[in-house]
Amino acid sequence: STVSDIRIYEVGPRDGLQNESKFVPTDVKVELIHKLAAAGIKNIESASFVSPKWVKQMSDGTDVMKTIKRSPGVNYPVLIPNLKGYETAMKCNIEEVAIFPAGSEGFSQKNLNCSVEEGLKRFKEVAVQAIKDGLRVRGYISCVVGCPYDGPIHPKGIAKITEELFAMGCYEVSLGDTIGVGTAGSVQRLMREVLNVAKPENLALHFHDTYGQGLSNLLAGLEFGIKTVDSSISGLGGCPYARGATGNLATEDLV
Ligand code: HMG
Ligand code: MG
């Protein structure tokens, strides 16, 4: 890949801010989204519609999505856990949703309060409805190389979930190293397995930079022809249900 081929999928306003302990006011979130669009970013994940009991920081998703001024040619996807979140999001003029099954049982229980299989069933309901409504659906898989509860994750299981997400109609699947424990070697093993079931142009890579390996892990992935990279402005981010998860790969480092 050359730099000009790379599609940046910015997750700062969602993955970046969801982990902040102090509530970030809605107008600050909106301003961040406006500044990212002004900087030329074309894909900005802007909110999530998860349970406010689980992630209070994202509880103003409706206000964020109703307040932002949308720039032409910019995509503003939102993260959706279930049909309830989907119905709320649909009142905000949404064009793309992201669903997020876990790659491990332990993380699925902590993050979604259900098994991987049950999570896939719920996400399928969302995907089916969203596609019927004419939306694009993106799939994430979290903990693709390691889980804070289950340890190392075998790539075969991740390839299977990838297949299921494409079967549900996802246009793209983002492989998430949620806690940033990947290495160039584990990323290569993952890519070899997942590329048995997917084309590189339909995959994205989502790294957290816990051990400073984000860019080298990314390079390992780019060598397999990956064109879409998730990153977060100034490396903000982490998941409240993944102990030890630090920030995402920083967008400015990626650029
Ligand atoms: P649950 O407690 O099992 O759900 O949570 P429930 O159906 O029993 O509902 C509990 C309460 O939440 C009820 O309210 C529901 O109405 C409400 P009550 O009756 O008690 O008043 N509720 C909702 N409210 C608003 N919007 C909704 C919604 N759903 C239920 N959508 C659930 C299950 C999935 C909802 C919960 O576990 C949840 O919200 N989890 C999301 C956690 C999260 O946001 N994690 C961070 C994002 S994932 C991530 O960061 C990783 C990623 O970046 C990839 C990577 O890094 O690798 C994507
Ligand atoms: Mg993440």
From TrEMBL:
<dbReference type="InterPro" id="IPR000891">
    <property type="entry name" value="PYR_CT"/>
</dbReference>
<keyword id="KW-0456">Lyase</keyword>
<dbReference type="GO" id="GO:0046951">
    <property type="term" value="P:ketone body biosynthetic process"/>
</dbReference>
<protein>
    <recommendedName>
        <fullName>hydroxymethylglutaryl-CoA lyase</fullName>
        <ecNumber>4.1.3.4</ecNumber>
    </recommendedName>
</protein>
<dbReference type="InterPro" id="IPR043594">
    <property type="entry name" value="HMGL"/>
</dbReference>
<comment type="pathway">
    <text>Metabolic intermediate metabolism; (S)-3-hydroxy-3-methylglutaryl-CoA degradation; acetoacetate from (S)-3-hydroxy-3-methylglutaryl-CoA: step 1/1.</text>
</comment>
<comment type="similarity">
    <text>Belongs to the HMG-CoA lyase family.</text>
</comment>
<dbReference type="GO" id="GO:0004419">
    <property type="term" value="F:hydroxymethylglutaryl-CoA lyase activity"/>
</dbReference>
<dbReference type="Pfam" id="PF00682">
    <property type="entry name" value="HMGL-like"/>
</dbReference>
<keyword id="KW-0479">Metal-binding</keyword>
<feature type="domain" description="Pyruvate carboxyltransferase">
    <location>
        <begin position="6"/>
        <end position="255"/>
    </location>
</feature>
<dbReference type="GO" id="GO:0046872">
    <property type="term" value="F:metal ion binding"/>
</dbReference>
<dbReference type="InterPro" id="IPR013785">
    <property type="entry name" value="Aldolase_TIM"/>
</dbReference>
<dbReference type="GO" id="GO:0006552">
    <property type="term" value="P:L-leucine catabolic process"/>
</dbReference>
